[in-house]
Amino acid sequence: MTKAWSGLSVKEYKKHKDLKKENLRDNMTNLELVLNMLAEATTTEISKEKKPKTFAQNKTIAKQGGTIAGNTRKEIEEKTGKKVVSKISAKKLLDIKNKKLK
User: Fold this and answer.
1) pLDDT-based confidence at 69, cuts 50/70/90?
2) What are the C-alpha distances in Å from 95 to residues 33, 38, 58?
3) For residues 87 and 95, is the Cβ–Cβ distance under 8 A?
4) Residue 93 sits in which domain range?
5) How many domains does the chain have?
6) Which of 75, 77, 50 is nearest to 61 (CA)?
């Protein structure tokens, strides 16, 4: 599902943000979180309607939910001219904040 909306697998996403053992979700920007939640909520709703019975069916539905969020991400990027998937992590945000305070 993450790959479908962000274009990156969880492993690739963590590498993109320079995370080791840190939680990816804790290091997402607000927009990244919202799109991740959209993918999850959409997948849940599709799953409730389709009632998948197999792992393969569940995987297909997860990809569908992620794709809907991915299309939203692409539209946001088109309208803003900025990438949604950011390299910014919680640690980097703290570093920036601390520099501003000095």
Assistant:
1) very high
2) 21, 29, 40
3) no
4) 2-101
5) 1
6) 50
